[in-house]
Amino acid sequence: MTDSGATTPPLGTFGVWRTAYGLTPRQGTEIEKLGYGTLWVGGSPAADLGIVEELLDATDHLTIATGIVNIWTAPAADIAESYHRIERRHPGRFLLGIGVGHREQGQAYRAPYASLIEYLDVLDAAGVPSERRVLAALGPKVLELSATRAAGAHPYLTTPRHTHDARAILGPDKILAPEEKVMLGTDPAVARPIGRDAVENPYLHLRNYVNNLKRLGYRDEDLADGGSDALIDALVAHGDAPAVAGQLRLHLDAGADHVAIQVLPAPDDPIPALRELAAELGI
Predict the structure, then answer these.
(1) Is-contact 72 178, C-beta < 8 A?
(2) What pLDDT, in 10s, does the model give residues 94-109?
(3) What residues does the Luciferase-like domain cover (predicted)?
């Protein structure tokens, strides 16, 4: 059984999403110094969660979250063992983000919803508290599961409209922490191709993301040829720092508790852009 006395780590209003590949402890310390509340480790980190522990070792109070652990590549029993190891060393600072990945990426993607429930059952039995985990949720079923079996939801590649709809499903008391891609730059002719590359490959070829975007009202022509300008503008906040900050706050206005900022282009050092945004966001 889970520990009902556990509490969810503080996320802060704004955090940073960064793929595990190339993420360094130095970046963690810089992100903490800038005042961001949480660093989300993306890209399906391995079950040993070694990168999570390295980031916690390098920081003092920053919450570290996974965005997300893939249930097909990181066995639940191994994740539970890693969770307890990390909790012993850094109590109250780790949030476990969990998701089912994508059928197109070659996993044994059979009965994903039932498999996610089974995964959560194993975590429950191993004493991983529901208050210390969030689910990668896009559609209504997994959003409902996020409300009953987790502390909340961590949607990826969404819009403020999705945030509004997700809040209605989750209810008022659950965490809603969407990811938002950003590109600082005032020329749309520069920003849109970078955003389009990040969105189109692979997300416009993955059924769950495509279905979610269609639920939000986007048509086949919006999803073709790398995505329409309107779609890219909705999924990637671009402009100068005040404009991007305003777009990030739209998620808060729609019901988010926290926004995880992913700076584009991804291989670059995100710290300069994060520093500029931190000043504008007042964190």
Answers:
(1) no
(2) 999 999 986 545 555 5
(3) 26-125
